[in-house]
Structures are given as structure tokens and as C-alpha cells.
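Fill in residues.
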């Protein structure tokens, strides 16, 4: 800013010096041309020359402005038209979000008329058609968007939404694969693709997608670990069914490593170890898991590992060893009580059933109710008491809510609102 002022003052000084110079040394300029004689002071001549130069400069600018006026006017009209069009597009999107089908349709038509080259008008048309229940028109608009590189991703998403609503998982999966190629790191694409691959039973592909989802942050590591364990478990089970026990055991161990609390992974690993004639290692595996988190699934697996010729009393001894690993767990007492019932050790069974009931409190779980019923009938032949326990078991099951799928991800795209 200081330099500008400095140069301005210099210019003023030069002009002032010239004015003084011409005032002190007036001089005259004479012209004799075509019979005309012109005589004037030098200062006036210089002023006239400057005025002519300025006139020529601004005359060119005026000429350019006149010639450019039509194009500038058209650009101005186009800008106003686009402004109105984008305003209509915005109002249409708001109407879609608000569920106002009539307003969305009106603004869709207006934005389409005003914005002939804006691909997003197709999106508004498609969503407006969806709100008005015209799925066929919506599909047409989404297909048009799919063919436009600028908005093809949005078109594919719209088609996926429609496919999921129609229950067409195969088409939704194909579209998800296509969307992934366009946006490899998009969170919703990875999660939707993972969900569809799991639904289709493509465990290997689902595991690869899970890795990408975790790397890109679409799925937090803490959520990815148990899901990886479940997917690996499905993969191992399939290998086991096909007779590839060695490879199945490797995958099962990976599942168990990904989520040590997954009882199904522990049980499958122990089962495969037993098939490989390594029963003792399988027992140690169950015992280690039992110490951390006792469960009926582990108890059943441990029971199956017993030798085929083991007596009921020998099985009781086995479960007494499990009880010592987790003496304060209700499942430890339930497992030992079950084994005691098989061995007709009524007193021991009653003792451990009572301890499990005290630990769990009310309401008593259905499994425990059935063991009580079994004891009352076997020890005393008390069918009334047995029926009372069975009734409690039935009531407890009716109150229990259905467990969600163990491979369910957050809300599906087709279950959400339009785009």
C-alpha cells in the first residue's frame, strides 16, 4: 500500500512539473494544412493530444462493449435461469426429504425445464417418481443416470435400493460389485456388498470385503473382529463338510483367534482336533475357554469328547473338573447337575441346581427349569412339581425375544429412506 501511494505522488509530481514547465516556457505550435492555419500554445497542444489518446482508448473499449453485449446478455439470462433451476432442484430435494410427493413432482418438472444439462435433475425425477409410487419411471431415470459418468454412482445406488426392496438379492449383489469399482472406499458400498455376500454364502469374497471395510475405516476393528470370526467359522464348516479337515482346522483356529469369546469357533476347533485323534488337546481347549466364559455349548462339546465307554460316574468326575475352573458360574453348576442326573445322583444334582438357581435368580431360564422338572420326576415321581417347572420353562421361552442374525450388519440400503 505504501509503494502505491509513493508512485501516485511521483505521478502527481511529474504532471505538476510539466504544468509548471509549460507555464514558464509557453512556446507555440503552428499548423498550415489544406488552407487552414492553426496556432496554439504548446500546453494546449499537449492537452489536446492527451485527450485524443484517451478518446481512442475508451472508444475501443466502448466498441468492444457494444459487440460483446449480446453474448453477455445471453450469459446473464443463462445465469438467472440456472439460479432458478438450482433453486427448484434444492426445493425438490427438500420436498423429497419431507415426503411431499406433489411438491417434489412440481419442482422436478420446473428444474428439468430450467436445467437441461444438469444430471442431478434425473435424481430428483427418480425420487419424485418413487414418492408417487411410480417405480418403473424411477428405474428408467436411474438407468439413465447409470449411463452418465457424472452421476452413474448415484444411479447404481438407486437401482440397488429398488432391487433390495423387490427382494432381488442377485441383482443387488451385481450392482454392489459395480458400485465398488466406481467408489472402492465408499462406506455404504462395502457394508452393503459385505451383507449381500454373506447372505449369498460367498464366505471367501465376504472375508476379502471385510478386510477392505476395516482398512478404509468403514467398519471399526472391534466390530470387524467378531464378524471375521463368524465368517471364518462358516468357511471352516464348509471345508469340514467337504472332508478337508486339515484346512478346516486352520481356518477354525483363525476364527477362534479373531474372537476368543466365540464358543462356536472353540467347539468346531475342538471337534476337528478330535477327528485328528488329538482328543486331549481338544479337552484342554474347552477347559481353557470354560475358564474364561462357561456356556452350555462348551459343556455339550466337552461331554461329546468323553470316551464312548465312559460311565456316567466318570462323566460326573469330568464336570467336577470343569466346575473347579469356574466355581462361581451358573453354567458350571448346571453342567454338573445334568451329569449327576444321568448318573442318578439326585442329591448332588439338587445341590448344584439350587446353586445355579441362586446365582441366576428370577426368572429361571428354561434349561434350568427343565432340569428341575427332570429331577422332580426322576427322584420323587412328582409329576405335579415337574409340570409346574415345565410350565415356567414355556412361559420363559414365550417372553424371550427372537435373537437377531449373527451375521447382520447395520441397516440395509433397501430399508432406508430414498438416497
Amino acid at each position: 500500500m505504501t509503494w502505491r501511494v509513493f508512485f501516485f505522488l511521483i505521478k502527481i509530481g511529474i504532471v505538476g512539473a510539466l504544468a509548471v514547465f509549460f507555464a514558464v516556457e509557453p512556446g507555440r505550435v503552428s499548423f498550415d494544412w489544406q488552407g487552414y492555419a492553426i496556432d496554439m500554445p504548446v500546453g494546449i497542444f499537449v492537452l489536446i493530444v492527451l485527450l485524443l489518446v484517451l478518446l481512442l482508448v475508451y472508444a475501443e473499449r466502448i466498441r468492444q462493449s457494444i459487440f460483446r453485449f449480446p453474448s453477455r446478455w445471453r450469459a446473464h439470462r443463462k445465469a438467472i435461469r440456472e439460479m432458478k433451476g438450482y433453486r427448484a432442484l434444492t426445493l425438490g430435494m427438500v420436498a423429497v426429504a419431507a415426503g411431499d410427493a406433489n411438491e417434489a413432482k412440481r419442482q422436478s418438472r420446473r428444474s428439468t425445464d430450467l436445467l437441461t444439462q444438469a444430471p442431478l435433475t434425473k435424481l430428483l425425477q427418480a425420487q419424485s417418481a418413487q414418492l408417487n409410487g411410480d417405480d418403473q419411471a424411477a428405474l428408467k431415470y436411474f438407468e439413465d443416470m447409470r449411463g452418465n459418468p457424472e452421476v452413474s454412482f448415484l444411479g447404481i445406488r438407486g437401482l440397488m435400493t429398488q432391487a433390495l426392496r423387490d427382494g432381488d438379492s442377485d441383482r443387488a449383489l451385481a450392482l454392489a460389485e459395480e458400485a465398488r469399482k466406481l467408489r472402492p472406499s465408499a462406506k455404504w458400498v462395502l457394508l452393503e456388498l459385505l451383507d449381500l455376500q454373506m447372505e449369498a454364502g460367498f464366505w471367501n469374497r465376504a472375508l476379502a470385503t471385510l478386510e477392505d471395510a476395516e482398512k478404509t475405516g468403514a467398519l471399526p476393528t472391534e466390530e470387524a473382529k467378531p464378524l471375521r470370526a463368524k465368517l471364518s467359522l462358516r468357511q471352516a464348516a464348509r471345508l469340514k463338510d467337504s472332508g478337508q479337515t486339515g484346512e478346516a482346522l486352520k481356518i477354525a483356529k483363525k476364527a477362534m483367534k479373531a474372537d476368543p469369546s466365540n464358543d462356536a469357533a472353540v467347539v468346531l476347533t475342538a471337534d476337528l482336533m478330535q477327528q485328528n485323534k488329538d482328543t486331549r488337546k481338544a479337552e484342554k481347549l474347552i477347559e481353557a475357554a470354560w475358564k474364561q466364559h462357561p456356556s452350555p455349548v462348551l459343556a455339550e462339546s466337552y461331554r461329546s469328547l468323553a470316551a464312548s465307554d465312559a460311565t456316567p460316574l466318570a462323566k460326573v468326575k469330568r464336570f467336577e473338573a470343569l466346575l473347579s475352573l469356574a466355581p462361581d458360574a451358573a453354567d458350571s453348576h448346571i453342567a454338573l447337575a445334568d451329569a449327576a442326573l444321568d448318573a442318578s445322583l439326585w442329591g448332588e444334582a439338587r445341590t448344584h441346581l439350587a446353586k445355579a438357581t441362586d446365582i441366576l435368580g428370577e426368572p429361571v431360564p428354561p434349561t434350568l427349569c427343565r432340569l428341575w422338572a427332570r429331577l422332580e420326576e426322576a427322584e420323587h415321581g412328582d409329576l405335579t412339581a415337574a409340570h409346574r417347572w415345565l410350565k415356567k420353562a414355556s412361559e420363559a421361552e414365550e417372553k424371550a425375544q427372537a435373537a437377531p442374525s449373527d451375521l447382520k450388519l447395520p441397516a440395509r440400503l433397501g430399508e432406508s429412506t430414498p438416497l
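The chain has 19 helices and two strands.
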